[in-house]
């Protein structure tokens, strides 16, 4: 399975999980790394789960026994031997030194009430240990770098920034059947996309939409619940006839919603980076995002900003887009140009340089 010389092994636990933001990042980075010149291929280690699909373009190897946290904490480092483990989905074994760990944000420290106590306690401990024992710590924005450094008690210089990509939907063919399934008309709905993490601010999205008071405009919410991580979240089904929670959908249907939405709203209270607004931009959908955390860093001058703590301000920004076709066209044009900078190939190249530099420092 392995060569005599130490090589990289990528932690593939993410392949056993539903694809949300963290899992998408790991998958896209690994695939992009495999496509880099002189990559030599990428080996992904996964739990021995029957019928588990391989990660595209990689040498996916089932190792050991068990699954979940036990497999990641104990089995993976045991079977990896001398080889260096690269962990790209926010978690890694606390019993292994000289790893690469990609920490996506410091939300468990900054917004602890939005996570279940078990998840919060574990991630705080894990991040604190990994920030000290890993040879390479990576995150996605300068905002996240500063917050992680502060909470983990390490120097910001110890954490490298590798911005993420947003071109993963480019090759996806939109599936417009989603419009018929939910009785949606093109440009007559506002789209919101993310997990049901309370930091995503769905309560104020709902209130802002009520204040918009337009019976001809629908609100479409794409996402899913995870009470294990986030605790109890509001049931959005049946709130109003023109508020439609469609749950977890395919990338094909998601792209169709981006292309046909009047606008995309993302008033997140806390964000380490923010891929969905960039996805929307690449699909020609103007975005309204919050003016907090990493979103101004990610979205630049290509978004309309709102106060995430004010439903009135969110509603005002949605109303401005409705009433100003010129502004909407300007944001679409800026969005295309801005989102074009965020490519997974560029992210993979930056990550490879960071990992390579840390290996030289450790030798």
Can you offer a commentary on this structure?
The chain is α/β, with parallel strands linked by helices and 363 residues long. α1 packs across α14 (344-362), α7 packs across α12 (311-323) and α10 (275-282) crosses α13 (325-339). 41% of the residues lie in helices and 14% in strands. The strands form two sheets. The protein has a seven-stranded parallel beta sheet, with helices on both faces. A six-stranded parallel beta sheet has the order 10-9-8-11-12-13, with helices on both faces. It starts with 7 loop residues before the first strand and ends with a helix. The protein has two domains: 8-165 and 343-358, Rossmann fold (3-Layer(aba) Sandwich), CATH 3.40.50; 177-339, Glycogen Phosphorylase B (Rossmann fold). The chain is built from 14 helices and 13 strands. β9, α8 (227-230) and β10 form a beta-alpha-beta unit. It is globular, with a radius of gyration of 21 Å.
